[in-house]
Amino acid sequence: MWLLFVEAGIALFLLVFIVWWTMFAGRKPPRPPARKPLPPAKEEGERQD
Fold it and tell me: Is the pTM of this model over 0.85?
């Protein structure tokens, strides 16, 4: 009977370990958002359409 508890404990440990590994192993720190380039500044005297 104790062997069934040992086997169930090992299976539970493996399940938790695999879930933990897949959740946190591939995470990378978030990248800052890319800044959009500013439109060219209009010079004085230029017409606005």
Answer: no
d(CA 9, CA 12): 5
Q: Which two tokens stand for residue 19?
A: 């879930």
Q: Are 42 and 48 in contact (CB under 8 A)?
A: yes
Q: Per residue in 14-34, pLDDT tens?
A: 999 999 998 877 666 777 777
At 28, give phi and psi (nearest 5°).
Answer: -120, 155
State whether the Cα torsion 8-14-19-20 is positive or negative.
positive
